[in-house]
Structure formats: structure tokens, C-alpha cells
Amino acid sequence: MAEPVTMPQMGFDMREATIVRWLKREGDAVTIGEPIAEVETDKAIVELESPAEGILLAITANEGALVPVDGVLAHVGMLGEPRPASGPTQPLAPAPRVSPVAQRIATERGVDTTAVTRTGPQGQVTKQDVLDAAGNAAPAPASIRAGFPPRTPNADGKIVLGPMGEAIARRTQATIRDVPHIYFTVTVDMTTALDFRREINRTHDGTTRVSLNDIIIKAATLTLLKYPVFNSTYAGDHLIVHPYVNIGVAIALSQGLMVPAILNCERKSLGEIAEGAKDLADRATNGTLRQAEYSGTFTVSNLGMFGVDSFTSIIVAPQVAVLSVSAVKPTPVVVNHEIVVRQIMSVTIGVDHRAANGAEAAQFLAAFKRLLEEPTLLGS
What's the fold here for domain 168-378? Predict the structure, then answer.
């Protein structure tokens, strides 16, 4: 029997998304997990994957359709199976004239969207339209690491949040209201970890250098395997513990915050995590994330590059914990009754108190701290 392809919920507050284009046509063979369409959310263009193997029997949502979560987009069945009776639908709501991703890129590159050639469905301004108007210039890498110009009001004194900003506002407000946060902080001596990183990069044969954040992600992964309660989803009277570790990485862009995930970190070496993190950041900037990368099970938010001493983060529901990582700074500390200067970093874990208690959080931080202070325990 034909299996419906529905609009997945890619993000806690996602309500709908627009069909940008179909990558497969009716009658094409598809496999499980194969990209069959591109859809655009408030934050990115994402490849929609087939939930089944077979033939794409029918497409029921046109390019340009704004489809709600769980809305039927197509049907996949077996060769020779009758085509479902329903034909292609019209857009459920008018498609935005400027797509959210196109607007973000236009803002970053100073492109006037009213003056570009529109090639999208129903006259929509697409990401590619903006790139063509901007001469396909690469975005400034400073948008992630070194910040971006401060937002300023327009002529009427307003700072428009935009689709991404509105989505962030809805999500954070709902999370703070519904999730009881508790926070715990430890300081970590990163002196040995910094030496470890230098040695890794000296001998590493990959193209991507290992960053301190990659080491933190590796340590978080190993700690989550030991304390799986923090790698779970709250579900009322029980927790759903995930068999994989998908580490969400908070990435700040000029239009807001994205938290895509490095998938299956429990299987990855330190070098593979570094490669995955770089690729994820590049595609988050370009708005080309994959559907599965919205399925983080734990989040690391690092503001160390901005010199922040300490901060707390809002949990990315339905996850149950988030790790906030601050700057590494030379600090006088007492070691063996003597004052010495060590490289010290502050780390704070935010926990959903419905899922875990303070003692469990303290154990997690102790194990995490040990891995960073004895980095040879991380493996390669």
C-alpha cells in the first residue's frame, strides 16, 4: 500500500514550510533516506528525504505550496501499484515573495530584493536569485566566528525580526514557560587540552584543523554515553533515551540563531567531528541543511570566541540539557599550595528539572571536566 510522504517537523516550533522544488518526478524510483524535494523553513532550505523505498507514485503538493507540518506531499508505493486518486494541490497559502533564506542572504550581502530577477514559483525571490544579483560572492566567514554589524532600526524606528527572529521568539518563550531550568557551573583547567589540540593538529592528516570546540563536543559525546539521561527527550511520564548522539551546535547568524546537529557523534573520531562541524557551519550559512540535521539530542553553545566569561542557555526543547561554554583565559589558581597561571574555562549545564536532578548534573559535569583535563582519554 502506498505510503504518504508528509511534511516533517524540523524544529520544535515549525508549523509549515514551502516546497521549493521537487528533485524526483512521478514514476521515479526512490530509496529510504534519498532526497526527493527541497523545502524551506523559517531558517533554511532543507532536503526532504523519502520515508520508504519504491516508486514516487504521486506528487500532491506543487512547488510553491506552503504546507503545514504533517500535510501530505506525495505518495511512495510499489511498481504497478495504482496511483492515489488525489492530484496535485494548489498552494495552501500564498508563498512569501521573498523566501526567508533569500532575505537573510540579501541582508548579509546588501542586495535589494525588489530589484532582482525572480525565478521562483509564483514570482518568489529565491536564494539563487539573490546570489546571482550579488555576483555569487561568498559570505563573510566573520558571520559565525567574529560577529556581524549591530542591528539598527529602519526609518520608522523599528528593527524587524523577520521569519527567523519570529520563530526564535516563539520557541524561546514557549521553552522558558514550559521547561523548569536549573543551572550548574564548573571551571575546567584547559591547559593540557590546549597542548593536546596543538599536538593533534601537528600530526593530523586531515584538511580541517581540530578546534577547541571539537574537543568539547567529543568530551560531551563520551559523557552522554556514560550518562544517557541527558541524551534523551522528555515525554511526560518517561524519557526517551536516544541510541545515537546528535550534538546540536549553536551557530549565530546575522538574522538569528540556528542549532543544527552533527549526527552520530558516538561513531566519529575527533577528526571526523572537526570535519562535520566545519561542513555544518558552512551549510548553515548557505541555507542548505539536511532534514536529519534538525534532530539534535543535546546542544553545545560556545561563546568563548567572544571572550564571554560565563553565561546560561535556554534548552532546545524537547532536549533536556544544554551546555554553555565560555572563553579560555589565563587565570591565577592554586596548585599544590602554589599560585600558578593556568588556562581556565567556565562551563554551565542547563537541565530540565523534570528529567534530571542536581546530583545527576553534578556527576555529568565531573565526568566532562575529567575528560577535558585528561584529554588522552578522548581517544583520536
Answer: Chloramphenicol Acetyltransferase (3.30.559)
